[in-house]
């Protein structure tokens, strides 16, 4: 959301129904290591999530998809699925979006941790993409910039 890593032609706030944003994946690569895992966001089942939908030029789709698969599927913890999302500023308009939903059967799934356990992992995590703390703070800042309040993430950010 705050660092897409690919070129896009449009960016819209969007709502996904049937999944919610959660710190539910132990990060052994980007924000932690196997010995000192971090914790990253995923889409977990149930509820809804307001985030960002990107439109990519058709000519760039194959390269974008390859990039996303390399970045998001490092440990195969997410299922790549297509879901309808509602564009917030155009509520009558729904579009198909590629989303990555956490696989609850994956050994890195961490969707049942307490807030305190989450805080511990975020504080200790540091991986290929940097400190886990920075990831959470950047996410909260981008959500706030978009007018989205995620109370769970704000609670963590205030304690980092």
From TrEMBL:
Output the Gene Ontology cellular-component terms.
cytoplasm
Q: Which Pfam families is this protein grouped with? A: ChaC (PF04752)
Q: Which Gene3D superfamilies does the UniProt record give?
A: Gamma-glutamyl cyclotransferase-like
Alphabetically sorted, this entry's keywords are:
Lyase
Q: What is its EC number?
A: 4.3.2.7
Task: Provide a GO biological process annotation.
Answer: glutathione catabolic process
Q: Which residues form the signal peptide?
A: none
Answer whether the UniProt record assigns the keyword Protein biosynthesis to this protein. Answer: no
Q: Superkingdom of this entry's organism?
A: Bacteria
**Alphabetical list of InterPro entries matching this protein:** ChaC, GGCT-like_sf
UniProt-recorded Gene Ontology molecular function terms: glutathione specific gamma-glutamylcyclotransferase activity
**Name of this chain's protein:** glutathione-specific gamma-glutamylcyclotransferase
- Organism this protein belongs to: Blastochloris viridis
């Amino acid at each position: 959301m705050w660092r897409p890593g690919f070129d896009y032609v449009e960016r819209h706030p969007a709502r996904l129904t049937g999944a919610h944003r959660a710190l539910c994946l132990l990060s052994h690569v980007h924000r932690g290591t196997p010995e000192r895992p971090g914790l990253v966001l995923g889409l977990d089942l149930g509820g809804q999530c307001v985030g960002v939908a990107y439109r990519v030029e058709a000519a760039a789709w194959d390269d974008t998809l390859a990039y996303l698969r390399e970045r998001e599927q490092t440990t195969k913890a997410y299922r790549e699925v297509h879901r309808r999302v509602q564009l917030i500023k155009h509520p009558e308009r729904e579009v198909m979006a590629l989303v990555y939903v956490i696989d609850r059967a994956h050994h890195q799934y961490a969707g049942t941790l307490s807030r305190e356990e989450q805080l511990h992992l975020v504080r200790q995590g540091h991986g290929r993409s940097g400190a886990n703390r920075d990831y959470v703070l950047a996410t909260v800042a981008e959500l706030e910039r978009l007018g989205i309040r995620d109370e769970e993430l704000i609670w963590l950010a205030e304690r980092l």
